[in-house]
Task: structure prediction
Amino acid sequence: MKLKSNIAISDSGFIFDPVSGDSYTLNPIGKEILSLLKGNKSDKEISDFIFEKYDIEESIFEKNYYDFIGMLSHHNLLEEL
Amino acid sequence: MTKIKLNIGVTGLNNTDNPGPGVPVIRSLRESKDLDVRIIGLAYENLEPGIYMENTVDKTYQIPYPSSGSQAFLDRIEYIHSKENLNVIIPNFDAELNTFMLAEARLKEIGINIYLPTLEQFEERSKTNLPKFGEKYGIKVPFSKSITSYADINNLRNHFDYPLLVKGKFYDAYLAYNPEQVINHFNKITAKWGVPVIIQEFIRGTEVNVVALGDGEGNTIGAVPMRKQYITDKGKAWGGITLGDEKMLEITKKLIKNTKWRGGMELEMIKTINNEYYLIEINPRIPAWVYLAVGAGQNIPEALVKLSMGMRVEPYKSYDIGKMFIRYSYDMIGDISQFEKLSMTGEL
Amino acid sequence: MEKLKYERPIINKINAGVPDKFGMKVRTQIMPKIENHSVKELIKNYGSPVYVISEKIIRDTYKEAYQAFSTRYPKVQFAWSYKTNYLDAVCKIFHDEGSWAEVVSGFEYNKALSNGVSGSKIIFNGPDKSDDDLEQAVLNNSFIHIDHFDELYSLIKISNRLKKTAKVAIRVNMDAGIYPQWDRFGFNYENGEAWNALNRIMLSENLELVGLHTHIGTYIMTASAYGVAAAKLADLAVRVQKKFNHTIKYIDLGGGFASKNTLKGAYLPGKDTCPSFDDYAESMTNALINSEIEPDKLPTLFLETGRALIDDAGYIIGTVLANKRLANGRRSTIIDVGVNLLFTSFWYEHDVLPAQETSQQTEDTTIYGPLCMNIDVIRAAIQFPLLQKDDNFVIPRIGAYNMTQWMQFITLRPNIILLGVDGNVHVIREKETSETFKNAEKMPKHLDKK
Result:
């Protein structure tokens, strides 16, 4: 999973897609994940990071994570594989 | 004489091709000789042009729509007040008027003045009650009926000739030539503004309007009649001219006297070829073309602010006839960073 | 290091400038407790979903309503509208507060009797009263509100046969300035039908005209309409007095008061637009006091308000079953409360409140019930916080009609519990079991093969 390289993420959690002109907001955890994706981290690295930091069951995060990735893909923010 | 400093909240910054009155109101206030205003824009949307226009607002806050409930709405107003120490709010968006009227006392208590008609005046003139209003105050109004469902549409033929007007509770009016078109407009309007939908007899003639201000005791503080010269496909004036029509002023003054109207208003009338005047709507607020009145010599927004601050205001006696307004569109340049700031923090 | 509290990651697209009904985000209210009882505990003990009724709110609301009327008018009597909620425990609370019973069927009539209401304190309304029902009501001295001429003639026959005077009123329908005008019940005022019916009653040997009744509609937001209705009934009372020298004992203005729920299609929330009991009371009592009825002959004012007295006292609490993405990327949440248990979601935008802490992040969400049917939608579009499977929620303000118009469909009706003023939780209707249904079914012999 790789974020398109031209997507800008600001500290406030605002993102702007310069190709489509659309903008989005992220909640803090969404912003964290997006930053990790931007840093080319793998799914495993991302989930390890989240488990380290947050109090969450693995299966729940997995569901939420793939749902989130699904939304990124829906909004065309991921590189096509 | 030193100018009085006031902090004024203004809504309706949507200066689009279907404009809200916010920007013209602000412009009028900025031209006041007696008031030195700091303008706090109150915006519902992140692209309302007034937010970005130069020499318009000093600061903008986003506010929630009244449909999210008066509690959330007023909490936000109180928060803004705590930052900006508002003296007056001028509501310019029809759908928010009810909420402001109900909250008038509560806002007054914390030092914010609102100058709106009473709830009774507001209800009495509402589109659904207009026939009764006309009867009570001896003003001709077109025949109209409120409908709530499809089933009512079939019965319309018993009461109306086509074409007829299909109107929303707050906004929107469409001309319909047959029941199919009524259904179409009914769907569109209910999706946006809910029921009832108002069906109104279509009166042929020239549309003429008056902007006016009542002091709540029956006095007309200002009144300027105007004819729209060019109307957009949305039914909005794109050009207009002030008229020297005594009859229109007489109707306006009589109406303000009898209703003891408090606040700004726009009377929409149709003048038929037989020189009869039909009142088709009363908007209980300042209209978007108010700056024409300022240009003709009556600064109605300024007078409204003074009244709301409890100051004595002498009624305007005259205005210039033949003053025109011509609207234009203009592209400003903004930046995504402004948009980001407003979207993420609700302030700009 | 202690781990941080987790929430689902979300991304929301910003709609530039497009009018968005939601506007700015507002804080989501949460409701972990209903009157000191933890929602999670209630679900643990009584199952999910479960209906919850607050005795305290019923009593407080009743007192508020009664006070609004009794401080403005000398003689006021409420009658509990059974169809709104006829759980015996609920009815008993209203009767305990002083309400009579207002029923619209033989079934409800017998329920009222078994709840200990004397026949002479039952108002019998509605278009469906069988001859047996009428006979019972006549014998018990109940107030029979006649709906149509067929019923009037049945009643003349029955009262003559029994040689007993029936106490009657007529239901009147009218133009009170509201729409839609309910003209399917009772006799019309404007076209003279009501006056004809009154004349017919006055000439009947065994019918005693005691009252006049109207019920102008439902969820009436304009309090002044009741003033118009009261004035029209007062006018009929004055005409009866003049022509027959007969005094009408009561005027029954029915119900139809709005609750604080938001109707679908309404722009402003119900909380902001719903008139208060004081508004309704002011309009009605002014009209009666200012009418031409002589002051010493002022009739008792009967009220049959249902929804406004019980809606706030009822909750349904339940559990999130799943979250799902729709094909267009929209979030949907499936909960274990469907339209089978929340019939009113067909016309209200019910609040759905999380029962546990959530962050302030919300997503535009569709909330579906659990039924395998496309119409099972609780909220078509709501800015909803991020609940996980097994999280709980509270749907407040559902006390009216849901426990009488509910449907048994693919599943069984759940427990109904009462939070008593004694501080205890009482099951007032047990959840149904497979036996509930089996017991009522019969198997034809030829199909009963093992």
Remarks:
- The first helix of chain B runs from residue 22 to 30.
